[in-house]
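Customer ticket, subject: "Can you confirm the structure for SpoIIE family protein phosphatase?"

Message body: Hello, I'm evaluating your service for our small team and ran a test protein. I'd like someone to confirm that this is what the system normally returns, since I don't have a reference to compare against.
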Amino acid sequence: MVRLMGRSGERSTRRPSGPYARRRRETDRSRRGETTGPRGPVAGLRSALTGRSVAGQVFVLNVVIVLLLVVAAVVALVLQVRHDSETEARNRSVAVAATFADSPGMVQALRGPDPSAVLQPRAEAAREATGVDFIVVMNTDGIRYTHPEPDRIGRKFVGDIGPALAGQTVTEEITGTIGPLVQAIVPVTGPGGEVVGLVSAGITTENVGGAADRQLPLLLIAAGIALALATAGTALVSRRLLRQTHGLGPHEMTRMYEHHDAVLHAVREGVLIVDGEGTLLLANDEAHRLLDLPADAEGRHVLELGLDPDTAALLDSGRVATDEVHLVRDRLLAVNQRPTDIEGGPPGSVATLRDSTELRALSGRAETARERLNMLYEAGVGIGTSLDVTRTAEELAEQAVPRFADYATVDLYDAVLGGGEPEPATPVLRTALSGIRRDMPLYPVGRQIRFVASSPQGHTLRTGRPVLEPRLDRESGWRAQDFERSAHVLEHGIRSLITVPLRAGSLVLGVVSFWRAEKPEPFDADDLTLAEELVARAAVSIDNARRYTREHSMAVTLQRSLLPRTLPDQDALDIAYRYLPAQAGVGGDWFDVLPLSGARVALVVGDVVGHGLHAAATMGRLRTAVHNFATLDLPPDELVTLLDELVGRIDQDETAEAGSAPVTGATCLYAIYDPVSRACVIARAGHPPPALVRPDGSVEFLDVPAGPPLGVGGLPFEATQLELPEGSRLVLYTDGLVEDREHDIDVGLEQLRGALETAGESPEETCRAVLDVRLPDRPRDDVALLVARTRALGPDRVAEWQVPSDPAAVGQVRSEVTRRLAQWGLDDLAFTTELILSELVTNAIRYGEEPIRVRVLHNRSLICEVFDSSSTSPHLRYAGMTDEGGRGLFLVAQVAERWGTRYTSAGKVIWAEQPVP
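Agent reply: Thanks for trying us out. I re-ran your input and got the following:
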């Protein structure tokens, strides 16, 4: 026996506390005849009446039940008496009314000249004789002939006389002229059976209930006597119950039983109760197990139970013991013992046993399980923070090292990294590697590996099952992968390996390898289970990232197919652009550069709010619509208005179709730059304002009316026109460049201003400078950036003439144009140009209005333009054989590369372009 010093000694003098202990002391005093203080029989009865004990609650419950029964009986008797009184009143009213109606001379009195004089005295005499409250005689119209109150004679009777007129007897409860009452109405019939009058007799409700009220005191007295007798009997029973239960309440008794049952069967600590003679009174299940007690141990002396001598002596002595350690067979038991005879209790002792050996083993296992659960929890939080396959694999390797393994590698099929399904016949790629040291002898990240069939990784990839190699130095199959590297692995101290497949349903995406070097113990079956759980959680995240990568690639491919592949050839602007799709999903940002007539160029930037294929498809529809509207040569505000109406119609069509998403939140900015006048006209629909970098480097955001987003409608769009100096840079962008979750748009605009102020002069340098400052590492929204530096078409390349409204002026125009073409070195185009201008100017003189002027532009092509003030436009048609005209525009269309009409605020312009040789 090992006894802990300082933990045992004299008997404790601490008094037990609690309601049961207090009541037990009070009961013991009562047994010994002690009545100190307010205790005694009266006090015990008072305790019973408080209701806290079982006896008190039984007393209160019985009294309440008796009281409810008495009250119910009284109420039933009162209701019965009232019902009988009301029945009696109805019967008496009918009898009196019928008797009076059948009395001699009633019919003659009713037919006499003054029925009231004859019938009133007779009715009052009958009323007093029968004890009813009224007898009323009336005619068939309900007019009274008699009434206890004479002033009511001659008035209308209160009640339903219809059934009585039909020969029936009626009883009813109404509120009459003398108050609430029960009345009967009977008909008075003549010799021929006809109804000649009516008689009503009744008793008021006050008189009906009088009989019940007179009997109520007697009922209450009887109820009080019954309640007193029941209370006295209940008090005697409760006092007897109080003594039997020691004043305990039901909750305390229930708790005592539950504690007793828990001590016997549920407590994982041995409990022994021994009386003063050393006889075992109680031993719970845990004590039987720890001491290996026989089944009939209870009732036998502790020295006869086959216990070791030290433990048996302690239990027989009954002395106080605290955490004494006893070796019982192969167990170390901590024993605590206390006497039970404190404060007059029964002699004996209570001992508790605790197996410290199992507690220590369980504590170690619990700590290990806690650490593993904590690692799995942190892995669930730390793995899959992004939808990137490579990053998710790196997070898996980082979570495993160093808490579970010293090195961890993740190898995935190449197709998985691109979002496709794995191809088992192909090699795997070392995607992630983590270790406690940098100089590890494992394949580096990025290495293509084809595992041999005998290696654990090859077996796992082929069968989809994990492999546990606790001692690598005793296995030879894994060395066939690379004999030289395998030798380095063993020299490095790596001695144990677990390989687990990365499974997503039936697909094996790759293999994860866990290597142990520094930890002395090899991997075991529990480690294999933990590794499978860890990899299973990571496999879900990797598969989600793979699926997202595939869908994102498809959406990006669709989106890029809808965006311009190359910029069109034009000389008005030097243009550079950047388009970066969002990492979290494909959006609906787009841009366009559209050459227009007269050497002008249109710039478009738009944004469809949202992400996914629907946003990309919507962007393609809007971009196509802008192309179609731009061919009409519309001003920016009119084009944006048409685009707004189109989006509204698309919304209506898709809203009517269940499950389709409307085009909500689309914005657009449309600008037209004219290199001849250097004028730029801009209109926008809910889009961020454009930035202008002037040749001196100053930056300003143009004040263009915002307008509502496309599809909202209700408000007109306004256009702003300004003149741009040559060499200015117009910067168009989408909100993904200036907005993010960390900063407001004002902060983004200021950062954009700073980047533009320090950027180089070329559009390409401007794009790089802006993206270096504003583009985040993983943009959450698409970013479209378009930078256009303006050029001007100088006066030496523009020729313009005013034309009088005279057919003779056509020849002069041809001569002027021919000379200018000779100056430009375009003599080869003289004939076709004269033909084009002859037809266009002749049409303007014949069908248009003054002023008429001609403008020729020498740009990438030769452009001829004829202006007039008319809004009518000519149309190309085929002339008949007998038609004298109608062939002019047909000839123009044959010799020109392009031709068309555009409208201005002052009229129209008919233009034609010819390629420059």
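A couple of notes from the result: DSSP finds 24 helices and 30 strands in the chain. The first strand starts at residue 134 and ends at 138. Feel free to reply with more questions.
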